[in-house]
Predict the 3D structure of the following.
Amino acid sequence: MLTRRNPAVPEPLRRAAKSEKLRGKSNVRGSAAAGAEPERPPVFGVDPPRPDEQNPAASSVRARDPHLAREREIYDNALPSREYILQILAEQGVPIPAEKLALVLEIDESEIEVFGRRLAAMERDGQIMRNRKDAICIVDKLDLVKGRVHGHRDGFGFLIPDDASPDLYLGPKEMHKVLDGDRAMVREIGIDRRGRREAAIVEILERANQRLVGRLYAEHGILFVVAENKRISQDILVPHGEAMDAKPGQVVMIELVQQPAKHSQPIARVVDVLGNYADPGMEIEIALRKHDLPYEFSAEVEKLSSLFALSVGAKDRAGREDIRDLPLVTIDGETAKDFDDAVHCEPIGTGGKGGKGGKGFRLLVAIADVSYYVRPGDALDREAELRGNSVYFPRRVIPMLPEVLSNGLCSLKPEVDRLCLVCDMEIDSRGEIREYRFYPAVMHSHARLTYTEVADMLAGTEKVWNEQARKNAALLPHLENLHQLFKILLKARAKRGAIDFESIETQMAFDEHGKIERIFPVKRNDAHRLIEECMLSANVCASDFLQKKEQPTLYRIHEGPTPVKLEGLREFLKEFGFQLTGGDSPHAQDYANLLKQIKTRPDAQLLQTVMLRSLQQAVYSPDNVGHFGLAYESYTHFTSPIRRYPDLLVHRAIKAVLAKKPYAPGDWHALGAHCSATERRADEATRDVEAWLKCYYMQDKVGVVFDGTIAGVTGFGIFVALDEVYVEGLLHISELGHDYFHFDAARHEIAGERSGVRYRLGDRLRVRVARVDLESTKIDFVLESEGERETEIQPRATHARRKARS
């Protein structure tokens, strides 16, 4: 039997090939001849017609392959294409043995090995499969569904179909055969007791997990690892002698040597011992490996990085505009280390409609020219594409580019020359961008300013200026120009109808041991918003420039609400007497108008949260569908090529247009999907780290009472965000009272059947911290109103396995 791991061909097929003395020599070139898997696999078919002795090629079954020309580009004597193999199988109408298909397709004995690999690849891709009689079947005719397994910490899981059809439930017995992330082929077997479509696994197409990070445990002399990925609910056995002397309780990296099966658990060996669970920085080490984040640069990247000069030379400045005399400044947070954007603003006279003059501004946004140093296809570029973006953990950054660039040559530090790509804009008194142009330049930042310094300087409170602010007092007129332009752009933003959801951003302060000392809110001031508006303007110009020049690129797109979410939002708003205008296709302006109406209401946070959740996630795509939230018809990311790969691609596209050359880095859709995925991966990793740090912070607060707001409602309870510490925890449904509670997703509430008590998103509660579990990063609350009874928490289970699962 052919398998993915062993492409050997069945002996009956070999005998058939020999007995028929099939024509032709090896059709494999290069790596295929050396044993590489062919790009596309084959299949076995029907009784072959007798070839015409005068013109065998004309009557040959293989000569009728509609994709023969394509195959001949790859092979000397082309194999049957995948499509043709499927066609032959379909014509048969029934599953057929592999040897019969080989005879039909005139497979020569010398082709058997490569043909076997093609079949194995088709099996792996879910195009064909073998039944119990070892006959080949077309998967599409078997009513099977292909997809990716999505596990749940409680042992069950789901198959997410490739064709975007509804998910299929996989019970614990089925999940015992696979791990989270595996690709599988399943057959729908019915409806479970909760009304979900249930499936059974027919074949596993691809294993997603080769290495995992987890914690080592020992029970009754048996070693096993509990994966940090809680969607993997199976214990992974570690044979004696394969633990690298790791001690129970330590965090380890393991390599799977045996995948799970119907009657056996996964087995692995330890390949790295990371240390103890509570060691400083361990939460980040775990997140890096759990989410498969690249965190070490290869020797090739390090070697290439070492070749860069430490400063900008005359050769680097050649062919660039010299704007070193302009007082460009960087404005960032206090802890920022990489400065990839600088700004300058000056008043100018602009020609308004009808030729009338009016006061406007010239705005320069200078962005570090990363594309000058990172060339397409080199080691730096491959690494940047792989990472997709920098990842910002509390107290640690995993950069997209090595430090020599991210904190050196591509960081717009003050008082040094730097290469940049400039968006030079002319903006009128109504906030409309009249003209713009892009050009490569050399700049010299005149100051590194912080948001706080700029806000203080603009407030006119010179008495409270710090020493750095006083040193930069000469820049105040330029900052005031920026502030005037900001006010204009803010009005234009409101007129455009951009959605402006209010949110509380928090920051963590750490002690000398790397643990949270306190969590505090960060207030956005005018300096934050000023820079944001400048960056938005440059991004819009970049998008417009590339679109007009018909140069493909990655747009930052944000689609409006789906019909289902829109209907749910409108039903919810009806209860409060509000209506979202815009019909079936609302505009951002409709959302913005509604936000204004609810702004002063006591339940404004509830309404805003539901509105926000009705929107889709922003992604990268070459298909420009606009940005709903910002109310832009065309928008892209241009301003952060140090830390975002899509921005680097946009820079290259702009420079290619300026040079009157095309730019095609590959499949734009694939690049967009990849960059969107790496962005989500980074977000998930940082959430994991923050959740662990917050749990550690809350360990000594068990029994303490807090006021909070319901931030989430589910079928198993409600999540409460605490006011003073900005931490969320779960108030389980069993702690809500002596009643049967029912979850209403449309109303974002959970209600008692007998008592009528309702807990709704945005409601205020007083809770007591009942339990904090570092291993599961869970914080549990009880209602304070329940008094003493609620504080009688059951002792924690000491059994290692239950402890790991809690």
Residues 1-9, 15-59, 352-357, 786-806 have pLDDT under 50 and may be disordered. The chain is about 30% helix and 25% strand.
